[in-house]
Every structure is written in C-alpha cells, then in structure tokens.
Specification:
Order of helices and strands of chain A: HHHH
Helix content of chain A: 55-70%
Largest sheet of chain B: 10 strands, mixed
CATH class of chain A: Mainly Alpha
Structural class of chain B: alpha/beta
Helix content of chain B: 25-40%
Number of helices of chain A: 4
CATH superfamily of chain B: Thiolase/Chalcone synthase
CATH class of chain B: Alpha Beta
CATH architecture of chain B: 3-Layer(aba) Sandwich
Strand order of the largest sheet of chain B: 5-4-6-7-1-8-14-13-9-10
Order of helices and strands of chain B: EHEEHHEHHHEHEHHEHEHEHEHHEEEE
Shape of chain A: globular
Oligomer: heterodimer
Number of strands of chain A: 0
CATH superfamily of chain A: ACP-like
Shape of chain B: globular
Number of strands of chain B: 14
Structural class of chain A: mainly alpha
Number of domains of chain A: 1
Number of helices of chain B: 14
Radius of gyration of chain A: 11 Å
Strand content of chain B: 15-25%
C-alpha cells in the first residue's frame, strides 16, 4: 500500500512541480527543496485530493511540509 | 530657446504572428504578400458562423517558458514573453543582467486571458468551486503580461497595461513613448499581445456581425478596402518594440530601426463599435500625432492603416486620411497588413509598429493583399497585391478601438548621418 502511494505521490509532484525523480526523496520539503510557491502548493493539494479521493483541510495542510508528510497523511486517511 | 525634448528610437523588435514565429520570417511573409488565415484548429468551430482565424500554430512555447510556468500563464502572456525575449535579443539587451529601474514595461491587450476564463468557467459549472485552479487569476489578468515580463527581465521602471480593445497596443506605445520623453525611463518594452481565438470570442464577434464568414476561402477573407469585404478576421500573437532614449541607444551602439517622433490619442465619444461618418476622431488623432511629431502632412510617405476589412472602418478611415492630407493623400501610400495577419485585436498595433519600423528601415511599402475590386469609396493608393520599393521618410500607424478610441503613432526614418 505505502509503496503504491509513494509512487503515485511522486508522480504527481514531478508533474506539478516539474522536478526530477531523484529530487523526490522522502525528506524533500516542497517549498525549500522542490521550489514550490504558495500557488504550487494549492495546485498540488488539488491534484492529491483528486488522486486519492480525499479532502485535505487547511489545518492539516499547515502540518504538511515534506513528501513523507504527504505519504503519512494519505496512509492515515486511508488507514 | 526651449530645451529640446528627449528623442525616442526603436532599438529592438520581436514578433509572434499568424504568419511566422519570428520577426524576420513575419517580414518576409509580409513582403511576399502571404496570408496567415486558415481554418480554426484551437477548438471545434463546426457549429460557428466563422470557422477561420489567424492562429499561431506549431509555436514552441517551451523554448521560452518552462513546463511549470506554462501551466500558470494564458497564451497571451507566453506570446508576450517570447516576443519580448526576441526583441531584447535584437536590441542587444539580453545580457542576463536585470534591466533595472530605468527600464519600464507597458503592454496592451484587448481581452487578456479570456480563453483561461472560459476554460475555468466550464470547470466551475461542471465540478464546482473547489476545482478551480489557483493559477486562474494570475493566468488571466491582463496586466500579468507586463507583470511577467518585468519579473522575467528585472525591469523595475514604470509598468502599465492598456486595455482599449483594438487600439490597446498603440495606447501602450503612446504612453511608453511619453515615459521616455518625460524622463521616467530610458528604455521601454512596449507593444501588445492577444490570444483570443476561443469559442466565446468568435461567437461574440459573430453576434456583432463584425467578423468575416468567408470560410471557403480563408486566405481571401481579410480584404481591406475591397468591395467584397465582409468583416475582419480574428488573429493572435504579439508585437513588441523596444523604445530607447536616443543618446542612450547611441552610446551603447544599439541598432536603430526608426524614430518615434510623436503620437496622439483621441476619443470619438460616439458609439461602442461604429466609427462616425468621416471619422472625425481619427482626423483629429492623425493631426495631433503629426503636430506632436513636428511633422507636416507632406512629410508622411506611408500609413499603416487600421484597415480592418470591415465595411465601415475602411471607408471612414480613407475619408479621414483624405481630410488630414488633402492633395497629398493621393501621393502617399496606405496599406493594411491585416490583409495578411488578420486583426490581432490588442496586439495589432504592436505587430504593425514593428512592420512599419521595418518598412522605414528597408524602404519597402508592405502590400494590401486581396484588393481585387477596390471599393469606389476607397480611392487611395493601397499598395495592392505586391510590396513596392520606395524610400519612406515619415510614416503613421493607425489603430482604432471599440469604445471609440483612436491612437496614432508617428515614425521618422532614422539616418545615422543625422546631426543632433
């Protein structure tokens, strides 16, 4: 499950942020390491919500900083 | 003796047009009298009265913007960035150093990101407000054309976006010219951009009966001053000119295509779409532009006409030229390059300023193609069918927009031998 989630998350990030797979390590932070700005984050969240059929609240979003944070969040939602 | 005002020259040109993706190829197409009008490919136009346009096709946007940037910009912004990069390169200003606070950007656009608005509206209706892209507003805002140019090239001087329909570009050039004359900037990136070949625009202009429905012969559809004209053809693209204070341009050895000697803007205060008979607003505008330039009617050898291929414009613009120029109207040449490019709306004046500058530079009168049977009420020399070699010392470029806006730019040939 987690490996499948990881693969889909990274695929979306590569597409949305136009970054290479090598950059998408678990600890990579969207803003500091992957060059995202606030608008990119909004687009990224929309794409994740579509892909994983969920809604990420603004409160939860504030806690998400890295790729691993997203994967953990999705694992938690889909338990 | 009053101090001579600061003089302004054109030191760089960049064009993306329905004819070609570069300035030099666009100029070659203009001189050879080729049409850029073809069936619409950007959407399924089979249910529309008009199925033809002047589209920019096969354009390699990724040569100018990243895939990530492309998602947050409407095409009118992408065209503007591309044409600006080419114009700055042409001017020798693409050095990688930010252009700084003595360089400004004033760009016109008629309807900005209308295709983005149309697309996101469909998403809103089908899927609800949560599915609207965060890039909707910055992709569509008209002033993000100059905004993205300023950000990309580090231009921190005056910035503005003129939105005056089909005279947007000339309003921009007028304001940019004055920014240099007044001393607010030494270099101005100006012109106009448009990317409005989309269902809403075509349907809207169709409803106004403003555009041609000659779908069976696209290349013949834009026929300014011809008896059989039946409206304009929507075009898209971008024309950017780099204006520079004369001494600054000379000091750095910049290429000089022509001088902008003066300009003017007037209002018809008459009707949202139609010009008044005799086009008094255009008469005053051409007269004021000549006065601003310190030129006499006899100094003008060429007019790049607004020449839309609509029934009213072409007659009234011809009448206005006769009123301003009197007997000299029979001697000067008037052509509408929209016969080849189509009508680029807010970008028209930018592309036509670039063409007019090259006409002066090369001593070549661009043709009006498709002028097979001149309207009996259009009696000037429209340079039918073929370009002509002819020394041009002074030129005007006319642009008139819905809302009754008239904006005219006066050009002078640049001669390196000229004493200052």
């Amino acid at each position: 499950m987690t490996e499948d989630v990881r693969r889909r998350v990274i695929s979306i990030i590569m597409e949305q942020l136009n970054v290479k797979e090598e950059a998408c390590v678990p600890e990579a932070a969207f803003i500091d390491d992957l060059g995202a700005d606030s608008l990119d984050i909004v687009e990224l969240v929309m794409a994740m919500e579509d892909e994983f059929d969920m809604e990420i609240s603004d409160d939860d979003l504030a806690k998400i900083r890295t790729i691993q944070d997203v994967i953990d969040y999705i694992d938690k939602v889909h338990g | 003796m009053t101090e001579q005002r600061r003089r302004v020259v054109i030191s760089g040109l960049g064009v993306v047009s329905p004819l070609a993706h570069t300035l030099s190829d666009t100029w070659d197409a203009v001189v050879s009298g080729r049409s850029g009008i073809a069936p619409i490919t950007k959407f399924d136009a089979s249910g529309f009265k008009t199925k033809i346009a002047g589209e920019v096709t096969g354009f390699d946007a990724l040569a100018f913007v990243s895939a990530k940037e492309l998602r947050r910009m409407d095409a009118f912004i992408v065209y503007a960035l591309a044409a600006t990069e080419m114009a700055l390169h042409d001017a020798g200003l693409l050095t990688g150093t930010p252009l700084g606070d003595r360089t400004g950007v004033i760009i016109g656009t008629g309807i900005g990101g209308i295709a983005t608005i149309e697309k996101e509206m469909a998403t809103l209706l089908e899927m609800g407000p949560r599915k609207i892209s965060a890039f909707t507003i910055p992709a569509a805002l008209a002033n993000l054309a100059p905004g993205q140019i300023a950000i990309r090239f580090g231009a921190k001087g005056p910035i503005n976006c003129t939105v005056t329909a089909c005279s947007s570009s000339n309003n921009a050039i007028h304001d940019a010219f004055r920014s240099i004359v007044y001393g607010d900037a030494d270099i101005m990136i100006t012109g106009g951009t448009e990317a409005a070949v989309c269902p809403l625009t075509v349907a809207g202009f169709n409803a106004m009966r403003a555009i041609s429905t000659r779908n069976d012969a696209p290349e013949k559809a834009s026929r300014p001053f011809d008896t059989d004209r039946d409206g304009f053809i929507i075009g898209e693209g971008c024309g950017i000119i780099i204006l520079e204070e004369l001494n600054a341009a000379r000091e750095r050895g910049a290429p000089i295509y022509a001088e902008i000697a003066g300009s003017a803007v007037t209002s018809d205060a008459y009707h949202v779409a139609a010009p008044p008979p005799g086009h008094e607003g255009a008469v005053r505008c051409m007269t004021l532009a000549l006065k601003d330039a310190g030129m006499m009617p006899a100094d003008i050898d060429y007019i790049n006409a607004h020449g839309t291929s609509t029934v009213l414009n072409d007659v009234y613009e011809s009448q206005a030229i006769e009123t301003v120029f009197g007997e000299h109207a029979k001697r000067l040449a008037v052509s509408s390059t929209k016969s080849m490019t189509g009508h680029l709306l807010g970008a028209a004046g930018g592309v036509e300023a670039a063409i007019t500058a090259l006409a002066l530079h090369h001593g070549t009168l661009p043709p009006t193609i498709n002028l097979d049977n001149p309207d009996p009420e259009c009696t000037l020399d429209y340079v039918p069918h073929r370009a002509r070699t002819h020394s041009i010392h002074g030129a005007l470029s006319n642009a008139f927009g819905f809302g009754g806006v008239n904006a005219v730019i006066a050009f002078k040939k640049w001669a390196e031998s000229e004493t200052l």
